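Appendix B, Record 12. Input sequence as logged:
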Amino acid sequence: MNAFVNHKNLALSYQYEQLQTKYESEFRVVWSFMSPIGRPCFNPTLLTNITEFENSLMQLKGQYLINGALEKINYLVFASDIPGVFNLGGDLQVFHDKILARDRDTLQYYSDMCIGTVWNHLNHYGANVTTISLVEGQALGGGFEAALSADVIVAEKSAKMGLPEIIFNLFPGMGALSLLARRVGLKKAEEIVLSGKIYTAEELHAMGVIDILAEDGQGKQQVQDWIAGNSKRRNGYMAVQRSKQLINAITYDELKGIGDIWVDAALNLEARDLRMMNRLIQAQIKMSEA
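Logged structural output:
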């Protein structure tokens, strides 16, 4: 297969403030690149951009509007435009402020949007869209959850992933337990969540969490190579994916119920927990300014 075409030169259809999506015609691939402004997290604008785009895919049953025409999608790749960072997770500043304000409605709305995105991925956009996460750099908290929601996870060797929420006495409530349990079993998933440990891509690959380990700088090419190989057996592959959803089902009610528990737990945080959360916010600010 030809070397990876720089995504800046792919056909552009949807462009939001903090999300760019581009279409690659050979294998009917949409590349979706997060470009958060400021701290590289799921801020409300980025989360809204993702929700609007992915809801459009659901409404069009896995088709993509480009140059005024609908194109069938076979693959959706979820990636980042921020060097060294896939995504650092939920917007801790929003969480901190809304917890202090006792604003349950905003926390619930945020949680529901995240759950909706995970659910769209698990449902393959109401069509036969294979979802792929490409992790280059850090994927923490909700960033790790987002990566886990894909059918296939490709990560470069220098990538680091983990769920640090337990550090400030919370837990990842947007699908982590359900998604990890499907890959490594519930006991191991609980261990990962409660440890707060940040894992290397090689550690997670050895566990079976990551499907494909790529050399640094080769992640995009590895995705394209996998797509080229998979295209020859795509019908059978998607039948297996649909079967997995029946055998080891993750329902919307399950995701929503856990999300509701997360909202309750967030509102139970104490002053010392919020101080620790604020330290992480400051660390993220320094990272974004570096």
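The chain is about 50% helix and 20% strand.
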